[in-house]
């Protein structure tokens, strides 16, 4: 299959997952600062872009995190790191899902990983995914507690927020379109900091 056809097929799959939303100049600038084009990464690390596109379409590697407005497939710089840690692309799914004791949860997280939508993490690893889930749940639980005036309560809340802040990037306006609303940074970090003063 010619490269143009593979690239087109990947772009179509990306839009099926994320919807068809325009990327603004600000979106493009954000993505270019946070991610690398698939072509550039493959050139730097000795991979064939067509082979990687086939792996993405075959659900062996995640889809691009973003499609820049010029059509560039934007991926994290560590795109191949998990497969290398697992011992190869063919072992990645088993290695990845084994991080969850519940196989249903593991499979769901694998599917989420393949979607390319884990742009909510600076580095997408099972450990980071699990920690983010813990932190967002913990922040919501602490906020719902009735003792918001206590300094100890406030210190715990802000410690959780600060840790989540280290895991998550800034996001861009495009993310709010494809996810259909505010991001976890909007709700768990920015809004919560604005609502509850740091002690």
Please list the strands of the largest sheet in the order they lie side by side: 1-3-2
Work out the strand percent. Answer: under 5%
The biggest sheet amounts to:
3 strands, antiparallel
User: Which regions are unreliable across 5 or more consecutive residues at pLDDT < 50?
Assistant: none
Q: What count of domains describes the coordinates?
A: 2
Helix coverage percent of residues?
55-70%
Radius of gyration, Cα only, in angstroms?
A: 18 Å
Going by helix content, strand content and strand pairing, the class is: mainly alpha
Q: Assembly state here? A: single chain
Number of E-type strands: 3
Instruction: Average the pLDDT over all residues and give the rounded result.
Output: 94
Q: What is the N-to-C order of secondary-structure elements (H for helix, E for strand)?
A: HHEHHEEHHHHHHH
Task: Note down, in words, how this protein is organized.
With 199 residues, the protein is mainly α. It folds into two domains: 103 residues, no CATH class; 80 residues. The chain is 62% helix and 4% strand. It contains eleven helices and three strands; from the N terminus they run ααβααββααααααα. A three-stranded antiparallel sheet has the order 1-3-2. Helix 1 runs parallel beside helix 4 and helix 9 runs antiparallel to helix 11. The longest helix is centred in the C-terminal third of the chain and has 18 residues. The termini are far apart. The mean pLDDT is 94.
